[in-house]
């Protein structure tokens, strides 16, 4: 995961979901879940920080196996100590 100062005037996030042998349907489902977590968990905090922050989330193979709550918990752990 990359986390740093954004060269733009607003916070932004990118999500990378490699195939890891999964179908496009599974990849898209995981991307949608992660975009929602970025929108609800990270963006509200990132918008208040100055200078604006940016983050790049790269999925590991285990993420495909996680349910909603476990994914939210893992997502939150990524940002502990970063903010």
Keywords summarizing the entry:
83 residues, alpha+beta, 3-stranded mixed sheet, 3 strands
Describe this structure in words.
This protein is α+β, with helices and mostly antiparallel strands. It has a single domain, classed as Ribosomal Protein S5, domain 2. It contains two helices and three strands, in the order ββαβα. A three-stranded mixed beta sheet has the order 1-3-2, covered by helices on one side. Helix 1 packs across helix 2.
Strand content: 15-25%
Q: How large, in whole angstroms, is the Cα Rg?
A: 13 Å
Number of helices: 2
CATH architecture: 2-Layer Sandwich
What is the average per-residue confidence, as pLDDT, rounded to a whole number? 87
SS class: alpha+beta
Largest sheet: 3 strands, mixed
Instruction: Identify the overall geometry.
Output: elongated
Please provide the count of β strands.
3
Poorly predicted residue ranges: none
CATH C-level? Alpha Beta
Number of domains: 1
Spatial order of the strands forming the largest sheet: 1-3-2
Percent helix: 40-55%
N-to-C span: 13 Å
CATH fold assignment? Ribosomal Protein S5, domain 2
Order of helices and strands: EEHEH
Short summary of the structure?
The chain contains 2 helices and 3 strands. It has 83 residues and is of the alpha+beta class. Helix 1 links the parallel strand 2 and strand 3 (53-58).
Q: What's the topology here?
A:
Elements: E1 2-5, E2 12-16, H1 24-46, E3 53-58, H2 68-78
Parallel strand pairs: 2-3
Antiparallel strand pairs: 1-3
